[in-house]
Amino acid sequence: MERYNATARKTLSSLQVDVHSRGVHTTIDEPESLGGTNTGMNPVELVLSSLGTSLQETAARLAPENKFTYEQMIVNLEGDLDAAGFMGDPDIRNGFQEIRYNLQFKTTESQAACGAFADLVAANCPIEDMLSNGVTVVLDQVEIV
User: Fold this and answer.
1) What Gene3D superfamilies does UniProt report for this protein, alphabetically (predicted)?
2) Which residues of 42-60 are buried (b: 16+ CB within 10 A; e: fewer)?
3) Which of 9, 83, 112, 144 has the fewest beta carbons under 10 Å from its own?
4) Helix, strand, coil proportions of the chain in percent (round to 5)?
5) What is the DSSP string of 10-71?
6) What's the start-to-end Cα distance of the chain, in Å?
7) Is the pLDDT of residue 140 over 90?
8) Helix, strand, or coil here: 103?
9) What is the pLDDT of residues 107-120, one digit of tens each?
């Protein structure tokens, strides 16, 4: 089993966070309307982006072995999030209530073939699996440094 690692460090700028993995740094932030400086996507936008990226990578991996050809696939994603949950309302979930996406193919394949391939991609996408079925998250350790 492969293990992945990432580190998130709050910067001195408003709500901005520097995240990195494998030496690649990304800035995560909130829009100004939510108290950030708008220098990067916010965490929930990154979740949507991660799902879209994982769907793309899964499709690219599965297409050759399933003899499905396409020139381009676009993933459009949206999620519903009620901020009242994050702000403390115990009756509202903190995270997304629902995520929806659609796939647009530039291809000569039939609509039926595209639908079957989309189902195959969804069934094999690791991020869709984690979002749909949940994953155990454990606070492993708290340290004073």
Assistant:
1) 3.30.300.20
2) beeeebbeebbebbbebbe
3) 144
4) 35, 20, 40
5) E-SSTT-EEEEETTEEEEE---GGGTS--SS--HHHHHHHHHHHHHHHHHHHHHHHTT---S
6) 30
7) yes
8) strand
9) 999 999 999 999 99
Question: What pTM does this model have?
Answer: 0.93
Q: What are the beta bridge partners of residue 18?
A: 9, 27
Residue 108's nearest CA partner among 62, 55, 67, 61 is 67
Report the half-sphere exposure of 116 (CA within 13 A, side-chain side).
10
Predicted confidence (pLDDT) at residue 5 exceeds the cutoff of 90? yes
Task: Return the closest-CA partner of residue 55 out of 75, 41, 71.
Answer: 75
% of the chain surpassing 70 pLDDT:
100
87-108 mean pLDDT: 95
**Chain-wide mean pLDDT for the chain?**
96
Strand partners, 28: 17
Q: In whole angstroms, what separates CA 126 from the centre of its chain?
A: 10
Residue 80 · residue 92 · CB < 8 Å: no
